[in-house]
């Protein structure tokens, strides 16, 4: 519980620091991009640290390279 | 070109050395020994030969247009419609690579040195350092590399030399006991984990001050890194034997634990852990820099410093997600990761070179 709150506070602090700075410089596209990235990171962080089963990115790797791997490492 | 930073060729060579040695020295001997047992050193030699070829391919891709980074080259040579998905794949590759390295450091710390520490605190610390490094830019990173290199080489040499009293040549027998196929299978790990992962430098090379000896220094530094890893492979096989090397997660750490000179110089493994964290940190920083710079170039953003903290937060989450269990992670690394490395360091650069040459021929 404490980690979640800490994490959320951190993400909020980062967004409060970065987004106004970008908007002040009139970099709207960058501000939108960063807000999106922060949101994605926040959701991902909460989901993974709460031990909800997120499929590992390595599953894509396995799907693509399994035939090649089986051929290369045959005895 | 980002920030118009220029680093010297020596600094680039230092980065190449750190990237080649990277986290390979921690995990590579065990992975190679699992496949080729006592012939891991033959795997090493074949791997270095194949790796130099890969390094040459990466260099040739750089020479197509020395002022363009990987992403810019993708977009220029392949055009918008093919270049964009390919560049996105590269960004995902950098993301995956950074995640894996952060996870490696976390695993190492929590299994070998600080078991009671929650892994997220190590990830958070490493991410804070990474974010502050990349925010400072490429030049401080290169200068830090120059500062750390002498100490790194000293400790590395000490690791090999202090273990020489315990060497048992019998551990190398039987030579080619299972034929030539297992060493060839094992060589892909060295070629992939050490040399293929130099592809991130394609994002850094445009910032290097061009000079006469760039290619020569690049290849020499890569060779030096390769030979250092060969030395560690020799060290682990000769001292520990192939069974322990294959079954330990961090055989070089076990090697450091074995140093015992007259009951005076012992328990020095923590110092070696520090230098490995340093070389792993440099690899991680370069990949994070590549991710940061690549995202900025692909999406045509104007500010790349603001991107570092959000990317760091995303990496925090992916570092958890990549490894649902140690068995799953280690199995995926052993079976599928080398091929992904080879795809991005051989298939894509060769395709780029081919398309570039064809376009030049077509233009007349």
UniProtKB/TrEMBL annotation, chain A:
It comes from Paenibacillus mendelii. The keyword Membrane applies. The chain crosses the membrane at residues 32-52. Keywords: Membrane, Transmembrane, Transmembrane helix. This is Uncharacterized protein.
From TrEMBL, chain B:
The keyword Transport applies. Keywords: Germination, Membrane, Transmembrane, Transmembrane helix, Transport. Its main location: membrane. It is a multi-pass membrane protein. The keyword Cell inner membrane does not apply. The chain crosses the membrane at residues 12-34, 40-60, 81-102, 117-135, 147-164, 184-206, 218-244, 270-294, 306-324, 336-358. InterPro entries: Spore_GerAB (IPR004761). It is found in: Membrane. Belongs to the amino acid-polyamine-organocation (APC) superfamily. Spore germination protein (SGP) (TC 2.A.3.9) family. This is Endospore germination permease.
